[in-house]
Amino acid sequence: MKKYIVTRTATMFGVLLITLLITILLVGSNMDTILKQGIVFQVRSEIIENPSIAESFSSVKDFEAFIQDQTDQRIKHLGLDKPWYSPQRIGLTMYKIILLDFGQATFLTSDSGSSDVKDIIFEKLPKTILLFTSATIIISVIGIFVGALAATKVGSIIDRITSSFAIISSSFPVWWIGMLMIFLFAFTYQIFPARATPDIPASSPEYLGALLYHMTLPLITIVMIGFGSWAYLVRNFMVGIMQEDFIIAKKTMGINQSKITYTHALKNAAPPIITILALSLSGSLGGAIITEAVFDWPGMGRLYFEAITVMDLPVIIGATYILTVFFLVSIFIADLLYGYFDPRIRSSTGE
Amino acid sequence: MSNVTPQEIKKEFLKSRMGVAGIVILTILISISIITMIIIPIETFQEWNNPESWITYPKTAIPIWVNLFLTEKIPEHKILVEPNIQSISNNEINLTSYQFNLNFNYDQFPKDFIYSYLLEYSGSPLLQMSVIRPDGVRLELVSTSLPYSNLKIIHNDRIFSTDIMIKKELGLQAEKFEFEIDRLSVEDIIFSKTELNKPLKGNYVFFIDFYEINKESKIIDSKLIIGGKAFGIMGTDELRRDLAIGLLWGTPLALFIGLVVSIGSVVIGLVYGIYAGFKGKKTDETMMRFNDIIYALPALPFLIILSVTISNSIFVMTGFLMIFGWVGIAKVARSMSLQIKTRGYVEAATIMGQRDSKMILKHILPQLLPYAFASIAISVPAAITTEAGLSFLGLGDPSFPTWGQILHDANTFGAASRGLWWWIVPPGIMIAITGLAFVFIGNALDSIINPKLKR
Questions:
Q1: With contacts defined as CB-CB under 8 Å, which chain B residues touch A331?
Q2: What is the ipTM of this complex?
Q3: Cβ contact B436:A224 at 8 Å
Q4: Which domains are delineated in chain A?
Q5: I need a surface site. Which of A52, A136, B100, B302 has the fewest CB within 10 A?
């Protein structure tokens, strides 16, 4: 088991580094230009704040040369004189990012006004986790219950409704249902707010209540679209298990049907279900980008979307990194759980 | 893995109601695509983002069929072309009269009207515009002379209902109405009953008369646009575009994206997986590690970064979608080929010294084909929704009217908050229907290949 964990951890870390490298390679050249412009801007603004420097020059030419010189010095000092694809610079950037030092955002700020990317991300992250974790938990509870119910009565009306609902709901994009929900429940019947961002400041005591109230519409939407496919999945696992010999044996022994379903069969279906639960938690974070953009939910997804719209590269890199970390951690947990429940996997990779 | 022959699959498939339904929907969609490509000239679709080409259409007009369900009829937007032409010559004066018939049967006033014309003339003809209403009242609207010209010139102009000339002319005829007309807009007067300010239904005739002395003018093009609030089968959007055209053109685009991405991913996945499984040992190990890496990349953030930094062309995007699509299929294909490899006849063939390529093509690939077809069908909806999602975020190819693009525009102009349901509902339903067709086909195939699920 130990060896298994170690190899998986190493693989995951390797994947994380590769993801980071790809991200940096993709946005690197733009990032470089932005950093250099930032330095020029910094030099000029320092001179404006300090008029005595400008007065000490006799000609414009000298003055421009001075600015150029200052800029070059700083660029050299920060190691930006090498091309952005040089191994040293990429290495340094990656090292900083791994230690969660994402630098300063170009345009975006956190609600408290900080432009440190780390502050911005850690302000948004809890809200995304709040929305999507609660959604996933509700989805899985409803899904397991409905799925198990359908599995006991294969071919019945409940089973058919579950299966067709799962199939139909999976072809609708969540964000489109979101638009419809806003249209219906925020404008036609004004029950819920259209924008999911509470307008009262985060410090006030009613904030949590307002946040939960604003969360209702996105939550309902995600659950509505999500639980069908869960129920279908659980149903399929359960149907498989109900055909196993030991269940049939229990049936012939005369143990009652619902006890078999909810204790014996569900227990055996648990490993794959838990594994998928771990995976879908992370998957929902990726899908958050569009859903949050529709509902204007103040989380990571909307931050990502805003960062893309204004090309705020430090935020993009930071958010991608954090999303990847979450994704990998949940894959890792899913892997471990799977290995824990199913010893065959463990031994085959352990060799 | 069960062994089913193609004939059996076909027989079973035709028995499954879901599969047949899927095929029927798909056939309809394909026919829509073909009809679209034949009937709608390709120019309209290239002109999608050119506001100039939509200028005569109304803004955010509701679909006309809505009127069927309403007791208060919403005025339709009408573009009247081909007027009746009458020419009268009296001594030196030539009169050319253009008449537009308008059947107005709505319970609201029209939004506005525009007369646009292209006239070839010399001298300085006199233009008069008037209307005879269903109650027989004749209203003079415009009386103006066109700019003088010695030579023959082509004059292009528009008369808008907001024109101050019309208002002045109507002010002189105020005694025809029993109520105060000063504060009303021009169309609210023209289309109103005389006793109270309510729309007057019936047949209106608009006259545009050109008077000239000794000369004759020639109208090249003339249009009377009665601005309404309902237009077309699908309505129009904020940029005056006919949504029916966007929705129709979206069909072949969605099918193209869905099919190309899923076929591409499945082929890559199959080849990769089979090769890894067949070779085994070190090759298998390395290939599967690489597979793990791609699997662990968060797809949507990466697609976004790729589309922003490299290109958002629809063809490049299909390539990007393939990068993330093949991974799962490769895993399954590998484990399947591992199983098949151990079967007796494959081992026998190995001993007989058959070449690798022949072994894969002849013994392993055919076994995996049913699975491949099912995966193609099942992965189409994901490709379509992902592309639609990217377009919705504004990262798609703006030169193509995909369904996601239409929804993106709808969201930008706040369609949900303004109650413009005809802009939001149809594109989503089209996405869902297309997805469903493939899910139906995929599920039907899947339950034939894995009979265990069917019970």
A1: 295-296
A2: 0.78
A3: no
A4: 2-98 (no CATH), 117-347 (1.10.3720.10)
A5: A52
